[in-house]
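Hey, can you fold this one?
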Amino acid sequence: MRHDRKREIALFALPRNGRPNIEVSGRLFQWRFNEYAPASVTQRRTRRAFCADLLRTTKRTGLLVASSAVGLGAALAPRSASAAVFDISDSEWEGLSEFYQIAKTELGPDRVKPVATLDWSELRPEDGIVFIHPTEPIDSTEASEFMKQGGRLAVVDDFGRGDELLKRFRIERIRMPGRPVTALRQDPELPIAEPWLEISRGQIGAPHPVVSSVKRLVLNHPMALVHPDLSPVLKVRLAKSEGDAIVAVAGQVEKGRLFAMSDPSALINSMLRYPGNRAFAVGLVKYLANDADRQNGRLYIVTNAYKQEGSVGGDRTMLQEVEGALRSLGDSLADVRKTGFPSWLLAILAAGGIALLAVWVGRTSGRPYRSPLPRYARSTPLVARGGVAGRFAMLAAPSSPKGLVLLELKSALFDAMSERFGLEPNPSSDAVVKAVRRSGLVDDSLQSHLARVMQKMQTVESALTSGSGARVPRAVVEDAHHVVRAVIAAVGALEPARAVGRSYGGGDVQPPSEREPKGPADGTPADGAGAP
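Sure. Predicted structure:
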């Protein structure tokens, strides 16, 4: 709907008698003398005299009161849904039926297309579009493409969504920066705009074609426009040397044209009774669709809420479809931030939340619970246990690095070799390798595999000691496992009988029973042993 701002539009104009007009100013009704009444009549009947006259008349009869109540009630009655503000079918004071009639008179009924759904694919380069107070954002991509192909587009808006397209072309909409020099009834909210005349080399240029027949244009609470490059079309002279406020600009977009004006109220029915406003409406219609090279152009009139579909020049590409979907989503979110969720959606969300809560309560209350086991009665996890079970659980845990498994294999290998060959505790890698080589029990191929595995073990151990960590693949761990088992089995470190001996310099030391010499079987002394 229309923004809530003060309006001061004459509902009844009696320009030739001395009676006052009824005017609406916000929520107050004021009695004012018609400014077009003859001076002699105005001087003869003052406001105070008229009010006294009216009071006496009201006391004598209730007819005037009743008729006034009926008239004011009709004026204040809610508007129907089919007669919204800026509606071309609305013949009341804030409708656009007069502007629609002007367009049909200038172009013909077949060339004027008031639409609620704008199909960009139907537009031709000679057509024109006028957006009057759009409450939906204009598709800037399609609008730009339409103008690039030669179309002309006008945005007449003050507080609607037209500024989103204007920002695309660096046009900024601001409030009127100062008090106007000339205004209707000396009301600064009803300033008088004049055509912008360019002065070059001491000569005054011609006005823009839209305002070529306009001398003065009455505005109603307008905004101002700011742009560094576009040509001004209409201006409002400001007092106290504040310069001029621009209220309309125009510019070229490749083959097409863009026109922007900051007060749609200048085109409503009650404002078109002023000659300048009517001439502006005629000039705008001709400029958009009835220029010398646009004799067959059609004028599309778009007001308030509307829909958009299609694409200029044919079907939309996938990228345009995605952009359109994202733009629609952004518009929906913007509407939600501005006005909140609609009541029906809130009701649905509330009902869904209550249903989910009921389901959760039912499932929770009906589910049996096991009595929790006290902590002191719970079993200790394997990882927290000591000994072989705890160590195995720690190494087998998914979170444990594979390098620890490799180091565990190294520890088992070194312990077995130290036990088998009688090496000192925690022997070095070189000592283990030399002991294995001198034993002669391990072939050369397995020795080379052992050296490679031990080098890998040393690298992983250094990395873990320094804290940098080392990534060890599973295949490396499996290969080291096979090599360690093969070496331990080859040297006989897993045999209990062989484990009794000790190795010094690579030779086996036999048990004492095997080390002492024995005599012949018959009990005779050995060689070199004398008789007792």
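The two ends are 139 Å apart (CA to CA). Let me know if you want another pass with a different chain boundary.
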